[in-house]
C-alpha cells in the first residue's frame, strides 16, 4: 500500500512539473497609463489568452511604461527582452516609412477610413514586422488627432516659436512646417513637460489629453481630425514559435477579438473625451478655416514626402486604399 501511495505521489509530482514546464509567463510592456482604453484592452486580451489556454500562457500587462518606456518597447520585443509588447507604431517611422502610414495628415481622418487604410496596409506591415523577428498580434486606432495649445490660435502664424511636444516624425514635421519647436516626449512624461513649460502645445487625441489632465496647463483644443494613429501589439517571433500550435491559435484569435473590441471602444469614447476637456474649462472647437487650410497644405507636402520615401510599395498601398 505504501509503495502504491509513493508511486501515486511521484506521478502527481511529475505531472505538476510537466505542466509547470509547459506553462509560460509573458510580461507585456505597454506605454500608456493603466486606465487608458488601450491598456484595459491589453488586460482583456491577456485574460482571453489565459482563459483560452487554461492558464498555460499567462500574459502580465505592465502599463504606463513601467517595464520599458514606449521608445524602448519595440527593441525589447525584437531582442526577446520582452516576449510581447505594445507600441505606437508611427513612432518607429524613422526605421521604415511604412510604420508611419497611419500618420499622413488628412489621408484617413475617420474611423471608417482608418480601417480601410489599415486593411490595405496590413499585409505589408505584417511582413515588415516578421522581417524584424516580430509577430503581428493586433492593432487599435487612437481617436482622431487635434491640436492642443495654451493660447488661442487663429492661423499658423500664432504657432511660430511655440514649443511643441512631438510623438513621432510626422508630428515633428508638422511643427517644423508651422515654425514651432518640436521636442520628442513620451505620453508618460507629458503632464510634467506641460507643467514645467518644456512644451506649450501638442497634437494628440482627446484620450491622451484627458489621461494627462492637460487642462491644468492648456486652454484650447482644435478638433483638426488630422489622422488616427495606431498602437500595435506584437510578439517576439522566437517566443511565439516556442508555443504549441493550439496556444498560438488562441493568441491569434484573442488578438482578433482585441482589435475589434479596441476599435469599438476608441470610437465609443472619442466624443466623451472632448466633453471632459470642455467640462474642465478648455475651449474645444473646430479650427478656423484659415488654420484648417494651412494644416491641409502641410498634409499635402507631407503626403508627397512620404510617397518619395516609401517608393512603389507605399504608393501601391495608398492606391489600393483610395480605390476602395
Ligand atoms: N495618444 C498618443 C498617440 C496618439 C494619441 O492619441 C500620444 O499622445 O502619445
Q: Could you please describe the fold and organization of this structure?
A:
The model is unreliable at 12-18 (pLDDT under 50). α2 (37-52) packs antiparallel against α9, α4 (111-130) crosses α10 and α5 packs antiparallel against α10. The protein has a six-stranded mixed β-sheet with strand order 7-6-8-5-9-11, sandwiched between helices. A three-stranded antiparallel β-sheet has the order 3-10-4. Helices cover 50% and strands 17% of the residues. It is α/β, with parallel strands linked by helices and 324 residues long. The longest helix has 35 residues, at 245-279. It is globular, with a radius of gyration of 22 Å. 44% of the residues are buried. It has a domain at 2-92 and 134-141 and 232-269: Bacterial extracellular solute-binding protein, family 7 (D-Maltodextrin-Binding Protein, domain 2), CATH 3.40.190. The chain is built from ten helices and eleven strands. β1 (24-29), α2 (37-52) and β2 form a beta-alpha-beta unit. The chain binds pyroglutamic acid.
What can be said about this structure in brief?
By secondary structure, the protein is of the alpha/beta class.
Task: Give the topology, please.
Blueprint: H1 2-22, E1 24-29, H2 37-52, E2 57-62, H3 70-78, E3 84-88, H4 111-130, E4 134-141, E5 146-149, E6 163-166, H5 169-177, E7 181-184, H6 190-195, E8 201-204, H7 206-211, E9 220-222, E10 230-236, H8 237-241, H9 245-279, E11 283-285, H10 289-323
Parallel strand pairs: 1-2, 6-7, 6-8, 9-11
Antiparallel strand pairs: 3-10, 4-10, 5-8, 5-9
The protein binds pyroglutamic acid.
Residues 88, 142, 167, 187, 204-205, 207-208, 229 line the site of pyroglutamic acid.
